[in-house]
Amino acid sequence: MHNLAINYLTEDGYPTVLFEPSELIDFKVSWDWQRKWQDKLVENPLGTQAVWILQHQKCYTLGRGANENNLLFKKEKSPCDLYRIDRGGEVTHHLPGQLVVYLVIDLHRYKTDLNWYLRQLENVLIEVLDELGLKGYRVPGITGVWCNGEKVGSIGVGCRRWVTQHGMALNVNCELSGFNEIVPCGLHGQTTGRISKWLPNVQINDVRSQMNKSLKKHFELLWTHEKSLVINKNYFDEKDD
């Protein structure tokens, strides 16, 4: 563990701001939030970390080196917003009913190892499923989480000077038809699922609550502030004033 991490860790965990907006968030808005927070944490290694737990309006995102052949439509005729972004991985789909988690944390405080970080994110998803009464598991050699033969959890991260951004998505009760327009995560022959298939009455807020607990446990987080109401798009600019 990095010396800064040892000095900065309180008895209860690493101070981290938790944002849980109640409305659907445009992808570009959340991406801007993450980049601004990442910039601040890179500049100030003792700064506070941040986590977002939210839902998006419909969109597709491509990782920095993603193959556009995994889009089953013409790029200029995308069914919804399409972004190429600064994370690893192939194409994925975001939409209401899918719980998305973004982490801007400093891996110097944990372990400067992206493989370790990806496995920790998988551990969070597997624990969330377990608490809901479902068996989540990994598939060797592939990042993500499966349940009953269907991929329900996707992971794609970015990292600069060991400060992360982006994160993971868990399909709760979302519509799945949009995944038929792509090869999700570039994985041919894999079935995309949602946990409402096995838990028909599952609600996003139930999963959100468990996600909060599992993140806190696996990353030793101390929530220093929660903002669950509507977040103004200029919120982070206002904080700079």
Describe the structure.
The protein is an alpha/beta fold. The protein has five helices and eleven strands; from the N terminus they run H-E-H-E-E-E-E-E-H-E-E-E-E-H-E-H. The protein has helices spanning 3-8, 27-43, 114-131, 204-218, 235-240, and strands spanning 14-19, 49-54, 59-62, 81-84, 92-94, 98-104, 136-139, 142-147, 150-160, 163-171, 221-227. The strands form two sheets. It has an eight-stranded mixed beta sheet with strand order 7-8-9-10-6-2-1-11, sandwiched between helices.
Q: Could you say what the CATH architecture is?
A: 2-Layer Sandwich
What value does the average pLDDT take?
91
Main sheet, how many strands, which sense, barrel? 8 strands, mixed
The CATH C-level class name: Alpha Beta
Q: With helices defined by DSSP (H or I, 4 residues minimum), what is the helix count? A: 5
Span from first to last CA?
34 Å
- Can you tell me the residue ranges where pLDDT is under 50 for at least 5 consecutive residues? 1-7, 228-232
